[in-house]
Amino acid sequence: YSNVSEYADVNANPNVTSYKYKLSSVDSCGNESIHSQFHKTIHLAVSIANPPASFNLSWNDYLGFTVLKYRILRNVNNTGFSPVDSTSFGTTVWTDTASYLPADTVAFVI
User: Fold this and answer.
1) Which residues lie closer than 8 Å to 103 by C-beta, 6 or more apart?
2) pLDDT tens digit string along 52-72?
3) Burial 25-53 (b: 16+ CB within 10 A, else e)
C-alpha cells in the first residue's frame, strides 16, 4: 500500500448538493472487489440567522457507516478551524449565535 487511494469527482459541485458513491478496490492483478453499500457525502448549507451577523447551518446525514455525532468547526478570519459544538446523528441543524463584524470572514466544517 505504497500509494494513497483517492478519487476526485471533477464533475461534482459540493457547493450545491451531496453525492452518493459506491466504493470498491482493485488489487495489483486488476481484480475488482464487490461494490460497497452507498456512501452519501454531507452537504452543508449556511444562511444568515436572526439576529444578523450570526449563521444557521443545515446539512444532511452522512450515509455509509455509523455516525454517532457531528463535530462543528469554525474558522474566523483564517485563524484555523476550531471545534465549537457537536450534535448527535439525526440532528442536522445548528445556529451560531456569536456576533461577527461585517469585515469578518467565517467558514464552517461539519
Assistant:
1) none
2) 778 999 999 999 999 999 999
3) eeeeeeeeeeeeeeeebbbbeeeeeeeee
Contacts of 64 (CB under 8 A, 6+ apart): 36, 37, 38, 39, 40
CA distances to 5, 28, 39 from 2, rounded to whole Å, are: 9, 12, 25
| DSSP annotation of 13 | -
- CB-based contact 34:24 (threshold 8 Å): yes
* Residue among 34, 35, 91 nearest 62 (CA): 91
Task: Specify the pairing of strand 39-40 against strand 44-48.
Answer: unpaired
Distance of alpha carbon 89 from alpha carbon 110, whole angstroms: 12
Q: How far apart are CA 32 and CA 36, in angstroms?
A: 12
The C-alpha cell that represents 39 in the structure block: 456512501
- pTM metric for this prediction: 0.82
